[in-house]
Amino acid sequence: EIVLTQSPDFQSVTPKEKVTITCRASQTIGSNLHWYQQKPGQSPKILIKYASQSISGVPSRFSGRGSGTDFTLTINSLEAEDAATYYCHQSSSLPFTFGPGTKVDIK
Amino acid sequence: QVQLVQSGAEVKKPGASVKVSCKTSGYRFIAHYIQWVRQAPGHGLEWMGWIDPNSGGTNFAPKFLGRVTLTTDTSNTSAYMELSRVTYDDTAEYFCARAGGGAGDFWGQGTRVTVSS
């Protein structure tokens, strides 16, 4: 089973600041890595698929990059509504797995 | 528009079974796998398995093998997840999600399953 680790676990950020979240896979997964945002009491929402592909309707301040084992999600100019937990998810190898999540709080 | 609507909350006693439904609409049902993901209170997301509505083929995370059954009803464009022999550790929110390739591109609203004696 592929293990995904995320860093940091938690980040407290001021509005307009740039946020970078890292996801590392225990073995190479190509570009089969997706990012989700989850707010309390809500279902996860996809932000980025296949490492860097944007999703219709998702603000352009969210971007992803990486391949192989190392991936990043960047939020440019954080807004208050971006307070949430962010998860990475690999679909390279069954069973699919999620990272433990990164909680982003607004100062 | 694509929608996945799940059944309501359930309360079960230890050892019982629970079945959650996921009614889909707005897309060609057999063209996309359905994934099932759960989230225990205060914890992260856990991938349980997925089903191909076209063939009925399934794959599961090892910890759920033998205890989870995934089915679909193509006439009703619905997917079902049945979890047997539940324990207190199975208390969680259960989500269905349409798989766009491997990504969960549309999600149900979640179904809270509480295991309590």
In short:
The complex is a heterodimer of chains A (107) and B (117). Chain A has 107 residues and is mainly β. Chain A has no helices and 11 strands.
Distance linking N and C termini of chain B? 40 Å
Kindly report how far apart the N and C termini of chain A lie. 37 Å
Largest sheet of chain A: 7 strands, mixed
Please identify the oligomeric state.
heterodimer
Structural notes for this entry:
The complex is a heterodimer of chains A (107) and B (117). Chain A is mostly beta strands. Chain A is 0% helix and 50% strand. In chain A, the strands form two sheets. In chain A, strands 2, 4, 5, 6, 9, 10 and 11 form a seven-stranded mixed sheet that branches. Chain A has a four-stranded antiparallel sheet with strand order 1-3-8-7, with no helix packed on it. Chain A starts with a strand and ends with a strand. Chain B is 0% helix and 52% strand. Chain B is mainly β and 117 residues long. In chain B, strands 2, 4, 5, 6, 9, 10 and 11 form a seven-stranded mixed sheet that branches. In chain B, strands 1-3-8-7 form a four-stranded antiparallel sheet, with no helix packed on it. Chain B starts with a strand and ends with a strand. Chain B is globular, with a radius of gyration of 13 Å. The interface between A and B is medium-sized, with 26 and 25 residues.
Question: What features would you highlight for this structure?
Answer:
heterodimer; A: 107 residues; mainly beta; four-stranded antiparallel beta sheet; 11 strands; globular; B: 117 residues; seven-stranded mixed beta sheet
SSE map:
The complex is a heterodimer of chains A (107) and B (117).
Chain A: E1 4-7, E2 10-13, E3 19-25, E4 33-38, E5 45-49, E6 53-54, E7 62-67, E8 70-75, E9 84-90, E10 97-98, E11 102-106
Parallel strand pairs in A: 2-11
Antiparallel strand pairs in A: 1-3, 3-8, 4-5, 4-9, 5-6, 7-8, 9-10, 9-11
Chain B: E1 3-6, E2 10-12, E3 18-25, E4 34-39, E5 46-51, E6 58-60, E7 68-73, E8 78-83, E9 92-100, E10 103-107, E11 111-115
